[in-house]
């Protein structure tokens, strides 16, 4: 069936907002998106009237783990079967909140995405990494257990072990993620907050290991996403050819210039920092993580502001990993605005910039344009005036994914 959306405001994802806009789509593809005055006649179409129409949003850094606490070690005592059941509800929450695409960078996403494609689960398009690649003792290792137990536990949870050392193991790690259907390769290029013994400011992986990972991923037409807090880790990742930097906590003007030069994308995930500072302690965040989170929080906001002012391309991501929190994803847009983005820049980060975080795997979504996939949402309110309109799922009145209606 042809659908015709008549909106007071059409947000194309990239480019100027159109007053009195029309979007027409049929069989999963957009036929027209533009001013009402130029729209084709569609007498057979179902008409939807709305205040705002825009592309479905992208969550570019999330985790479907099915855990409840602010302690990532919970994944090792959770039955993965139960976690997998829980994330089916999280997927639905994300879609109902207007997120038609999720780049999932570690968790059950590779399997969840397949179940959604099969039509067994209602949820967004999921482009997952499977597991994540970490050096021994790195952020993706689990320091409270012996190494073999950590390897076994990772394989039990996400399907494959991601702890690798040396260029040959690094290549093999990429190939193991291909076995579970990876659409992006996720690595840990610096220490992290939620791991016990490593320092977020110190780099992880040698240049040779990073280059091997990027080379192997590139041959498979996959982009590499690098968890990076510290400057040295960010710069090493960029030099190896990594194209998305996750978090970027200690990014400065030199890093920003390098990212612009290499056309790398920042996925800053301010949401998780704010959440851990506000609620982490009562949700069981470990003491070691609390100290690191507080140390990073202020610098992280400054880093995002620097990236915005220097023209770094930014894609929206939250780092949500707990079940029940999915659906709050668009709260990140308010934090991006707090860090210097204009509302339309933040909306572009959540729409048009999303597909580029997959590189050659990028789908034809994120914009309202003839010929692109009909991932479209209708909004009660004007997010160009207040982006937090998008943060309330009740304001997302209609959701179409691939032209199929899931809400409204």
Topology of this structure?
Elements (H helix, E strand, L loop, with lengths): L2 E8 L7 E9 L2 E7 L10 E10 L1 E6 L17 H17 L2 E6 L4 H9 L7 E4 L18 H12 L7 H14 L5 E4 L18 H13 L4 E5 L2 H10 L3 E4 L5 H10 L2 E3 L2 H10 L7 H23 L3 E2 L16 H8 L4 H8 L25 E4 L16 E6 L2 E4 L1
Parallel strand pairs: 1-4, 5-6, 6-7, 8-9, 9-10, 10-11, 11-12
Antiparallel strand pairs: 1-2, 2-3, 4-13, 13-14, 14-15
Question: What can you see in these coordinates?
Answer:
It is a single chain. With 408 residues, the protein is an alpha/beta fold. It has 2 domains: 3-55 and 367-407, Roll (Urease, subunit C, domain 1), CATH 2.30.40.10; 57-361, Metal-dependent hydrolases (TIM Barrel, Alpha-Beta Barrel). Helix content is 33%, strand content 20%. It contains 11 helices and 15 strands. The protein has helices at residues 80-96, 109-117, 147-158, 166-179, 207-219, 231-240, 253-262, 270-279, 287-309, 331-338, 343-350; strands at 3-10, 18-26, 29-35, 46-55, 57-62, 99-104, 125-128, 185-188, 224-228, 244-247, 265-267, 313-314, 376-379, 396-401, 404-407. A 7-stranded mixed β-sheet has the order 3-2-1-4-13-14-15, with no helix packed on it. Helix 2 links the parallel strand 6 (99-104) and strand 7 (125-128). The longest helix has 23 residues, at 287-309. The relative contact order is 0.17. The model has no long low-confidence stretch (mean pLDDT 96).
Element order: H for helix, E for strand: EEEEEHEHEHHEHEHEHEHHEHHEEE
Please compute the radius of gyration using only Cα atoms.
20 Å
Q: What is the topology, as strand order, of the major beta sheet?
A: 3-2-1-4-13-14-15
* Extended strand count: 15
């Amino acid at each position: 069936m042809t659908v015709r959306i008549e909106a007071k405001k059409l947000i194309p994802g990239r480019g100027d907002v159109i007053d009195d806009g029309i979007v027409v789509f049929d069989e999963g593809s957009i036929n027209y998106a533009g001013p009402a005055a130029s729209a084709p006649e569609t007498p057979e179409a179902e008409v939807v009237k709305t205040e705002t129409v825009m592309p479905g949003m992208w969550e570019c850094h999330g985790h479907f783990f099915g855990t409840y606490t602010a302690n990532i070690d919970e994944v090792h005592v959770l039955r993965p079967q139960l976690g997998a059941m829980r994330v089916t509800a999280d997927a639905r929450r994300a879609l109902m909140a207007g997120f038609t695409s999720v780049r999932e960078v570690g968790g059950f996403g590779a399997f969840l995405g397949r179940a959604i494609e099969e039509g067994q689960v209602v949820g967004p398009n999921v482009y997952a990494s499977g597991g994540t690649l970490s050096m021994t003792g790195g952020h993706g290792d689990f320091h409270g257990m012996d190494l073999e137990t950590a390897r076994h536990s990772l394989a039990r949870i996400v399907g494959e072990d991601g702890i690798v050392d040396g260029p040959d193991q690094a290549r093999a790690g990429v190939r193991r993620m291909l076995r579970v259907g990876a659409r992006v390769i996720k690595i840990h290029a610096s220490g992290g907050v939620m791991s016990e013994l490593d320092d977020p400011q110190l780099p992880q992986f040698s240049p040779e290991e990073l280059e091997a990972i990027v080379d192997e991923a590139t041959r498979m037409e996959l982009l590499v996403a690098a968890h990076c807090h510290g400057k040295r880790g960010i710069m090493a990742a960029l030099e190896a050819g990594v194209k998305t930097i996750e978090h970027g906590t200690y990014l400065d003007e030199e890093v920003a210039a390098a990212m612009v030069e290499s056309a790398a994308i920042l996925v800053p995930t301010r949401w998780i920092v704010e959440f851990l500072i506000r609620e982490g302690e009562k949700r069981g965040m470990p003491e070691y993580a609390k100290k690191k989170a507080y140390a990073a929080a202020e610098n992280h906001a400054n880093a995002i502001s620097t990236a915005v002012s220097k023209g770094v391309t930014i894609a929206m991501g939250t780092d949500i990993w707990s079940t029940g929190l999915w659906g709050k994803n668009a709260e990140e847009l308010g934090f991006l605005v707090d860090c210097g983005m204009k509302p339309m820049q933040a909306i572009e980060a959540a729409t048009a910039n999303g597909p580029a975080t997959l590189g050659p795997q990028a789908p034809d979504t994120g914009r309202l344009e003839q010929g692109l996939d009909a991932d479209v949402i209708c909004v009660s309110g004007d997010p160009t005036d207040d982006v937090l309109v998008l943060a309330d799922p009740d304001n997302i009145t209609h959701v179409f994914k691939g032209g199929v209606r899931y809400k409204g």
